[in-house]
Design brief:
mainly alpha, DUF6691, 139 residues, single chain, 6 helices
Length: 139
């Protein structure tokens, strides 16, 4: 196995562990965060805040680097990446997240914690991805 695959795998395990430890594999916790006028649960705000702190430290470091450590170049987004398709997909993602209380990362992490509940979400998500590719391929 090459070094890039090892780094990707380790990053995925770290991300999944963080989601599980932060309770983000629990759909009730996510729905509680979205219920700002009811029984609001601020836990997700702390997870988001932690991510913002990490990125606030990472961006200045990245600007000083000529290339990433484990690949040839950085793949950073720019304004040309903002397309109607991306906006529509983001809206669908948000609606699905609000309904299910899971998004892809926590969905896959939840497979290890609550496989029966997460399997339906992951299967539906993968089916949606296949459907989206089929529809996009016909255009």
């Amino acid at each position: 196995m090459n070094r890039t695959a090892l780094v990707a795998g380790a990053s995925g395990l770290l991300f999944g562990a963080g989601l599980a430890i932060g309770g983000m594999t629990n759909p009730a916790r996510v729905r509680g965060f979205l219920d700002v006028f009811g029984d609001w649960d601020p836990t997700l705000a702390f997870v988001i805040g932690g991510a913002l702190i990490v990125m606030a430290l990472a961006w200045p470091i990245q600007r000083r680097m000529s290339a990433p450590l484990f690949t040839g170049s950085f793949a950073l987004p720019d304004k040309s990446d903002l397309t109607p398709r991306l906006v529509a997909g983001s809206a669908l993602f948000g609606v699905g997240w609000g309904i299910a209380g899971l998004c892809p990362g926590p969905g896959f992490a939840a497979l290890a914690i609550e496989p029966a509940k997460a399997a339906a979400f992951v299967a539906a998500m993968l089916a949606g991805m296949v459907l989206a590719r089929l529809v996009a391929g016909r255009r």
